[in-house]
Amino acid sequence: MDWDLVVVGGGAAGIFAAISAKEACQEAKVLVLEKSISLLTKVRISGGGRCNVTHALFDPKLLVQNYPRGSKELLGPLYHFGPKDTVEWFEKRGVSLKIEKDGRIFPVSDKSASIIDALLGEADKLDVVIQTKKAVETAVKEEEGFLITLKDGTTYRSRSLLLATGSGSDGHRLAESFGHTIQPLVPSLFTFNVPTSPLKELSGISLPRVTVGIENSNLQESGPILITHFGFTGPVILRLSAFGAPLLAERAYRTMIWIQWVLFPEEEIFKELSKAKQEMPNKLFSSVLLFPMPKNLWKALLGASGEKNMRDLSTKELREISKKLFRDRYQVDGKTTHKEEFVTAGGVSLKEVDFKTMESKKVKGLFFAGEVLDIDGVTGGFNFQNAWTDGFIVGRRVGAVAHEAHHPG
Ligand SMILES: Cc1cc2nc3c(=O)[nH]c(=O)nc-3n(C[C@H](O)[C@H](O)[C@H](O)COP(=O)(O)OP(=O)(O)OC[C@H]3O[C@@H](n4cnc5c(N)ncnc54)[C@H](O)[C@@H]3O)c2cc1C
Tens digits of per-residue pLDDT, 184-243? Predict the structure, then answer.
C-alpha cells in the first residue's frame, strides 16, 4: 500500500488529522492533498486575521450547547480532545494563547500566522507529506483500501481515506459516491437586515443583554446586541442565525423577529412606568431613564410619548410602551455575511458516522472531519474546536490501524 492515510483537504481538520496520525504512529505514511495553492486558508483569514482558535468552555457538557448541529455526537469526542487539549497542544509548540473577556481564545500575537506556523512546523517535523494544487476528483473502495484519482489523472492507493474538504461541494460529492447522505447545506452565522428599522440612525449602539426571538417558532436567544446601519448584529443575532439557519433559509430570510429590550415581565415593566408617572408627574418622559440602556435608544423606543410630561401619559400609552420594551417587533428582510466568521450548516449525515473513530458506518477505512460533516458551531472558536477534535480522533484511529499493519501479529 502506497499510503496509510490520504487526507483530502489541507484545512484545519485535515492538517490536524494528518499530524495526529503521525503522532499516534511514527511509521504511518500520511499524505495531504490540497486543491488550492495554499494550506489552512480559513485559519489565516479567521477571526479578522487573529484566529479564534477555541473557546474557554472546558466542560464538554457546556461546550456542546454551542453547536446547533452536532451537539449530541460531539460530546464523547470532546472528552478525548477538548479546548483544554487544544490550548495545551499549541502552548507545547510555543504558541502562547490568551482568553478574552467573552471566552474566545486567540494567540497572544493576535496573528493567525502563529497558529499556521505551529501546525505546518509540526507536520514538517513529523514528515507528513503535503501536496498543493492537487484536486481529488474520485475515490473508490478497492478490496484493500482506496484508489484516489486527481483531476489530472494521477492516482494514489491508501489504506484509509479522510474527507476533510470543508463546506465545498467536492467532499459532499465524494461522500455521496460512497452512499452517504448529505443534509441540506445552508449558511449559518449571519446578521439580520431590517431595511425599515427606525433604529438604523442609532448605528453603533450596543446593549449587553437583550432577548431576541423569531416569530412563529420556539427560537429565542439572549446576549449582546449591536444596532447597525442595516439592522442588527452582535452575538445574540449570530447565535439566533445559527440555531435558526434551516428555518430562516426556508423563510428566504424574510421573517418577523421580536426584541425584549428590558428583561422583566411585561406587567412589571408597566408597574415601573406607572410608579414613575406617580412619583415624577412633571418630568419629561424621555428624560426619565427607567431601565439600563443608552439614552438615545430609550428616546427612540418611546417615540412621540417621550415628548410628553409623565402626568399626560394615558394608561393605554403606558401599556403600549410596556409592550414595546417587552416585545418590539421588526421585519427582517435579508441577511449580511458576518465577515469575522461564517460557516455552512448541513453536510454528511451524522447518523452514518461512528463518533468513537469518525469512521463511516458504510465504508470501512473512510473517515470524515470538520465542516464536511453536518456539524457547525456558533461564533467564538467552536468551529475550529470541531476541526481539532474530529482531526484528533481520526488521527488516533488511523495511527492505530497503521501500527497494526506495520507490526502484524
Ligand atoms: C472568514 C471566516 C472566518 C472564520 N473564523 C473562525 C474563527 O475565528 N473561529 C472558528 O472557530 N471558526 C472560524 N471560521 C470557521 C472555520 O474556518 C471553519 O469551520 C474551519 O476552517 C473548517 O475547517 P475544515 O478543515 O473542515 O475545512 P476548510 O478549512 O474549509 O478546509 C477544507 C480544505 O479542503 C480543500 N478541498 C476541497 N475540495 C478538495 C478536493 N477535491 N481536493 C483537495 N482539496 C480539496 C479546500 O481547498 C480547503 O483547503 C471562520 C470561517 C470563515 C469563512
Answer: 999 999 999 999 999 999 999 999 999 999 999 999 999 999 999 999 999 999 999 999
Pocket test for ligand 1, best of 38, 44, 45, 46 (most atoms within 8 A of CB): 46
The residue extents of the domains of the chain are 3-187+340-406, 190-337
What percent of the chain stands above pLDDT 90? 98
State residue 201's pLDDT score: 92
The alpha carbon of residue 332 and the mean position of all alpha carbons in its chain are separated, in whole angstroms, by 22
Q: Quote the CA–CA distance of 364 and 357 in Å, as a whole number.
A: 11
Q: Kindly state the average pLDDT of the residues 375-402.
A: 98
Closest CA to 84 of 53, 40, 118: 53
DSSP letters of 147-183?
Answer: EEEETTS-EEEEEEEEE--TTSHHHHHHHHHTT--EE
Q: Is the CB of 10 under 6 A from ligand 1?
A: yes
Q: Is 397 a pocket residue for ligand 1 (Cβ < 6 Å)?
A: no
Cα angle at 212 between 209 and 214, to 5 degrees? 170
Cα 241 → chain centroid: 11
Would you state the CATH architecture of domain 3-187+340-406?
3-Layer(bba) Sandwich (3.50)
How many angstroms separate the first and last alpha carbons of the chain?
A: 18
Segment 44-65 mean pLDDT? 96
Q: Which residues pair with 232 in a beta bridge?
A: 192, 227
**pLDDT surpassing 80 at residue 99:** yes
Q: What is the pLDDT of residue 47?
A: 86
Contact 187, 242 (CB under 8 A): no
Residue 309 backbone dihedrals phi, psi, to 5 degrees? -75, 150
Entry pTM: 0.96
Report how far ligand 1's centroid is from the alpha carbon of 40 (Å): 7
Closest by Cα among 109, 131, 126, 133 to 35: 133
Q: Is 13 in the pocket of ligand 1 (CB under 6 A)?
A: yes
408 contacts: CB under 8 Å, gap ≥ 6: none
Q: What is the dihedral of CA 350, 60, 211, 251, to 10 degrees?
A: -10
Q: At what angle are helices 315-326 and 295-302 packed, to 10 degrees?
A: 120
Using pLDDT thresholds of 50, 70 and 90, give the confidence band for residue 409. confident
Q: What is the dihedral of CA 353, 359, 362, 364, to 10 degrees?
A: -170
Which of 365, 372, 398 is CA-nearest to residue 141?
A: 365
